[in-house]
Amino acid sequence: MNEPAPQRPTPAPPAGPTPAGLLIIDKQQGFTSMDVCAILRTRLRRGGAPKRIKVGHAGTLDPLATGVLVVLIGKATRSVHVYMASEKEYTTTVDLSRSSNSDDLGGEVTEVQIAAHPDRAAVEQALDAFRGSIMQLPPQFSAMKVGGQRAYALAREGTHAPLQPRPVQIHSIELLKYEFPNVDLHIRCGKGVYIRSLARDLGIALKTGGLLTALRRTRVGEYDITMSKTLDQLPQVLLQENLLPAGAA
Fold it and tell me: Is-same-fold flag (21-85+223-242; 88-219)?
């Protein structure tokens, strides 16, 4: 009696196309923007995406900041410049009683002695100088490159990077609340604006301290905070069906 022919193993189904599209993340405190990208890359790979799938973001949020982070995946990363150039909105709190070498709570914080607390009218008047097209000096602890090195790397070594002011556009600043030392603002601006620099420069204008104690990005282009999800709200396995098409909310 003849032995039955051995069964050939069933071939694995061909891999599908590499996922491509957007995820609108509500970034939580403590994560860097690249932390978020790494976590999402892992979840995409669980869903069958290639090991080297491209995952990038359109505009860094510092670890202390929260809010809208546009994450681009696969071929959508080619359009990163479009999203980087988008108008952005923030809510923020500036502390006028302190300053720091990073212009936020992440650096060495120093109490500032102030002879007289500015009143609301003085704060409103000072804010006028930051509306429109202005020249802004980036923070020492920033990702700006100086001689091929990041400014924050030089700052951590104790080197003062010779950064230069750059033109930026601030479309509007609304004073939401003021009770010394805290100034609550709503800001609508173009690309490249450092809200930490605005906090620092507001303090300089008022002859007070000035550092950022809270920052939340509420919109990037057409994507606002209501369209975003935290990492906890997203599935542990990400598929094409979980992504937004590039250019559509």
Answer: yes
62 is catalytic: yes
Cα 118-65-236 angle, rounded to 5 deg: 160
pTM of the model: 0.86
Instruction: List pLDDT tens digits, range 74-88.
Output: 999 999 999 999 999
Which residues are bridge partners to 71 per DSSP?
23, 57
In terms of CATH, what superfamily is 88-219?
Answer: Pseudouridine synthase (3.30.2350.10)
Maximum CA extent, the chain:
105
Interstrand relation of 88-95 and 109-111 (parallel, antiparallel or unpaired): unpaired
Identify the bridge partners of residue 81 per DSSP, sorted by sequence position: none
Answer for the pair 195, 61: CB distance below 8 angstroms, yes or no: no
Domain 21-85+223-242 class, CATH top level:
alpha beta
Q: In this structure, are residues 40 and 73 in contact, taking their beta carbons and an 8 Å threshold?
A: yes
Residue ranges per structural domain of the chain: 21-85+223-242, 88-219
CA distance 214 to 196: 10
- Residue-wise pLDDT for 18-54, tens only, equals 999 999 999 999 999 999 999 999 999 999 999 999 9
Options 26, 35, 62, 232, the catalytic residue: 62
Closest by CA position to 134, among listed 205, 84, 208, 214: 205
Among 197, 200, 171, 201, which Cα is nearest to 186's?
A: 171
pLDDT, tens digit (0-9, with 9 covering 90-100), for 116-171: 999 999 999 999 999 999 999 887 655 555 555 544 444 454 555 556 788 999 99
Cα distances (Å, whole numbers) of residue 143 to 63, 112, 134, 194: 13, 27, 20, 11
